[in-house]
Write a structure and sequence with these properties.
The chain has 20 helices and two strands. By secondary structure, the protein is mostly helical.
Length: about 425
């Protein structure tokens, strides 16, 4: 195996195993920052040794064992080994051999519990959203600071500062690396689900930049969603979020043209949807439904399933979708949910009914600067034959969005609604 092959193997193993290694170390040392440093030391050792000695048969265990030895060395060098033992309730007179054996056990057992503790800690609501996102991708996803910066189109030093401040906040606030008590579980779980879905959404419909989709972020969010659902099989919303992401991700192959231009849902070639992801998403939705009352993510998954089950746009059960949106608005009132309901109502009961809902949202502060409000109004106005007003709304939407692909789409729709003599010769719709 060449050095390059070894390095690729190290990177692949790190992406899969790093969260487990960090989780096990964090429970031992009670410090996420130190746990990551120790895991990174193990990564460096792998990069040095694997090209010479070959990839071990169990590379994840190799990283874990190496990191454990780094932890013991840290305690020795800092002359705090006995203090660390005292902090975790061990007898001061325990011999080091026994301590090392217990540390081995600590790393080998309860890996699932350790990982769940780490997930809840890095997504703790005491952290700002940007900090939770960056820390989750760093510690749970194994992404480098550079990769996170590239994914979110922000400078690398900015991401580094977010990660640093998040770790410091967890330390300063004395956040325990542990599962939340039962009374706090719903709010803490909501924070975890929010972060995973924010990662997915940034990949599915990028808020800024030149790309409409960033599939790598979608893949990372779905991986985290599967881990969470596996660790918390009795939580319906864990399955609901996974269902929502998998059903939405099934459309990714059909969401863009060969040149990268967006293709709207009703215009997509549904034969290009990933039917395996659809089946997996519907199965996850079934698990959520079997566990009890549907929460916001499960309801959104049920809405997405209305599209997934329809082989053509005309076959979509728009009335059911409108009813589900009404229920979702009751569970989690939100202007964005109401805007989506306007679309479903417009399809189920006519554009005039949908426009009434959309018009009622124009004074909402939360939707100021939100490009999809004028875009939805433009679509409904166009269906009512009010082309000039519709074109103006699409023009507003183009000004508000920060995504270049979306801006081009809105401009093209505005241009197509204008009389031919008002079109610029370079506009996509000028030649019909």
């Amino acid at each position: 195996m060449t050095v390059a092959d070894s390095h690729r193997a190290v990177e692949a193993v790190w992406r899969i195993e790093s969260a487990r290694v960090i989780a096990g170390l964090a429970r031992m040392v009670h410090d996420i920052g130190l746990a990551e440093e120790l895991a990174q030391d193990a990564l460096v050792a792998a990069l040095e040794e694997w090209p010479r000695k070959g990839v071990p048969n169990n590379p994840g265990a190799w990283l874990m064992l190496t990191a454990k030895h780094r932890a013991i060395d840290q305690f020795r060098r800092r002359d705090t080994y006995e203090r660390k033992l005292q902090e975790v309730g061990r007898d001061m007179e325990l011999r080091q051999e026994r301590a090392e054996a217990e540390l081995d056990d600590a790393l080998d057992d309860h890996i699932g519990d350790d990982l769940l503790r780490l997930i809840f800690t890095v997504c703790h609501p005491v952290l700002p959203t940007e900090g939770r996102l960056a820390l989750a991708l760093r510690l749970l996803g194994g992404l480098t600071t550079e990769e996170i910066a590239r994914a979110f189109l922000v400078p690398e030093p900015t991401v580094g500062q977010r990660i640093f401040r998040a770790k410091r906040t967890l330390t300063d606030k004395k956040v325990m690396i542990d599962l939340p008590p039962p009374g706090e579980l719903p709010d803490r779980l909501a924070s975890v689900l929010e972060i995973i879905y924010l990662i997915f959404n940034e990949g599915y419909a990028a808020t800024a930049g030149d790309d409409w989709i960033r599939p790598s972020l979608c893949q990372e969010a779905m991986r985290l969603g599967r881990v969470l659902a596996g660790l918390m099989p009795a939580e319906p919303e864990a399955h609901g979020l996974l269902a929502l992401m998998e059903i939405q991700a099934s459309r990714i192959p059909a969401r863009t043209a060969p040149d990268g231009a967006p293709i709207l849902l009703l215009d997509q070639d549904r034969s290009r949807w990933d039917r395996l992801l659809v089946r997996r998403g519907l199965a996850a939705l079934g698990r959520a439904e079997a566990l009890g009352t549907l929460g916001p993510y499960s309801l959104q998954a049920a809405i997405a399933a209305c599209h997934a089950r329809a082989l053509t746009p005309e076959a979509t059960d728009w009335e059911r979708m409108a009813a589900l949106y009404r229920l979702l608005a009751h569970v989690t009132p939100s202007p964005i949910v109401e805007l989506n309901r306007a679309v479903a109502v417009g399809m189920a009961h006519g554009p005039a009914r949908g426009l009434e809902i959309a018009d009622s949202l124009q004074g909402e502060r939360a939707l100021r600067g939100y490009a999809h409000l004028p875009a939805v109004r433009g679509d409904l106005l166009a269906k009512l034959g009010r082309a000039e007003e519709a074109a103006a709304e699409f023009g507003r939407a183009a000004e508000l969005t920060r995504n270049e692909r979306e801006r081009a789409l809105f401009r093209a729709r505005a241009t197509a609604l204008l009389p031919a003599h008002d079109r610029h010769p370079d506009d996509p719709a000028a030649s019909g």
